[in-house]
Amino acid sequence: MARAVLRLEAIRKSYNPGTPTEVEVLHGIDLELGEHEFCALMGPSGSGKSTLLNIMGLLDHPTGGRLFLDRQEATDLDDRALTRLRGRSIGFVFQYHHLIPAFTAHENVLMPMLVDRGRPDAGMRARADELLESVGLGPWRENPANKLSGGQQQRVAVARALAMDPALLLADEPTGNLDTKSAQGVFDLMREASRSRGTTVLLVTHNHALAEQCDRIVELVDGRIVGDRRV
Amino acid sequence: MPSWLPFEWIAAARFLREGRMQSVSIILGVSIGVGVIVFMSAALAGQQANIVKRVLSSQPHIVLLPPQETARPLRGDVAEAAIVQKPLQRMRSLDQWQKIVEELRALRPVAAVSPLASGPAFAVRGEASRSVNMQGIEPESYFRIVPLPEKVVAGSPRLGAQDVVIGTDLGTDLGVTIGDKLNLRVASGLSATLTVSALVDLGSKFVNQRTAFVALPTAQALLGLPGGVSAIDVTVRDIYAAEEIAQQIRGATGADADSWIKTNAQLFLAINAQIIANTTIRFFVGLAVAFGIAAVLIVSVVQKSKEIGILRAMGASRGQILRVFLLQGAALGLVGSLAGCALGAAAIVLWGELVRNPDGTPLFPLDLDPKLFVAATLLATLTGLVAAFVPALRGSRMDPVVAIRG
Predict the structure, then answer these.
(1) Which of A50, A83, A92, A165 to mutate to test the interface with B (most CBs of B within 10 A)?
(2) What is the pTM assigned to this prediction?
(3) In sequence order, what E strands does A16-140 have?
(4) How many CA atoms lie within 13 A of A48 on its CB side?
(5) Complex ipTM
(6) Which helix (H) or strand (E) holds B233?
(7) What count of Cα atoms within 13 Å lies in the side-chain half-sphere of residue A123?
(8) Which chain B residues touch A160 with a CB distance below 8 Å?
(9) Is A96 exposed, middle or buried (0-12, 13-18, 19+ CB in 10 A)?
(10) Cα–Cα nearest to B234, from B58, B60, B54
(11) In this predicted model, what pLDDT tens digit does every residue of B33-73 receive, in sequence order?
(12) Is B338 on the interface with A (CB under 8 A)?
């Protein structure tokens, strides 16, 4: 197997820990994702997919276990270090595109680089242009984000997620609100990114047809991995 | 998106532009508040300056008098008296007044010093006589304390040994005008016949009926103070420091030094009360502005929670989010205060044009003081920054997961 980009060791997550209302939603998850890997995460609603994704994305803290990202243990990092690691190593694509409506398509793609480096420069602008072209939205670069169609917005979101050339791309049902054609288009973009840029992708989806196009499918039920197979 | 602008400035400007109705409303609110503060400050300063000018333009800021004579009962072997009568206060000269005048002139806070010999007299013309306060002055130094030439209604304020300058109402009462002779007589019986060189309006009928200015040597001769003076008038650069300076002079010279603050205590209290009332109003207007900005930004933080979550997911630090909202508060304060300064300036100009005395002169002058505008702008910007702190902190502490979920 290729070098591990993400490794989870016995990850647990409880809500209201230490109280009578404590609920454990992840019961010791072990998972490893290698370079270039394109993996689907499936499971019924309430199985803990989003919680697991948030932990993988360093947006949430596990209550137990260890997490390694890019060979660096992230479990005990403070907020500042986690934020920096997240910004540079992880790209997010959400179910609802979550573009920032105050900015244009081009500026939304520019945003992760702007947040990281502080001021916009020519190199960042060129990279944003290149990414927008790669998702077929070059002509829409100056359009306000909220004036694009759903499919276009999700393409911008994919371009934005790739802006920092992250080692890991986490996509939480990115095609959930799109028609079949747009969904396949967005999926193909992520697939292409994985192939051409070597980005590791974890795709949470309910869409079996798309999942079957991935390299690997992991199934989560009631906070436990119940299936892990290569396609 | 200009290359020289940092991320926080770009995001703050865009968020404000996106919620432009909210931004315009609060800028309008801030500008009205700042406009009121600017206008009220200018009105207060103008009114105070006007009152003080009217009151102090015909009197010195500090008057030095000889120390009062006190009774000194014998002690020791002699039996102590049960009742000690207060001594009469004779007309006396200030001891070593020339030296005191030189010392006072050397003091930095002192603007002008003038010795004078003053006392009661009768102004007599034919059958008519009036009691007056005769003031013997050195014109050159006295005019720097009380600008008599500005108050001349007729004649010229010439004060040779044979001249007298009198109040307009005294001239009317005695039926004298420029060039007429007037006899000044004191209680000792000494008198001098002088020529009226000018009639002055000192701003009060009472004062105009009872004032006569003569040359210092003339007054010294009439009052029996050869070479002496009964008082030294002092003008200081900071009128509100007059009492403090008077105390210093008292300590240094041993003379009684009374400031205008002490002798016009009621006026000073009234001015202070006005300052307190005005400051209170300005404080509450400022508070309303601060709460307005805070309210808008609290709403903005709630509205922008998803964007905050996304930015945090992209790697924006808590500090960056904090600065984005602090900058919005400062920008609202700055733009609002600039508009408010313009509003206040327009109100000041309009006041000057519309509110006038019956003779057409402004009721009182309002200055367009640049310092006031700079202070108002800085204060409003700072208020915006402080008001934005709580919402900004709230935004920066948002859990990105919760924020994205909305």
Answers:
(1) A83
(2) 0.72
(3) 23-34, 38-42, 64-69, 72-73, 90-93
(4) 26
(5) 0.86
(6) strand B231-236
(7) 5
(8) 314
(9) middle
(10) B60
(11) 889 888 888 888 888 777 777 777 778 999 998 877 777 76
(12) no
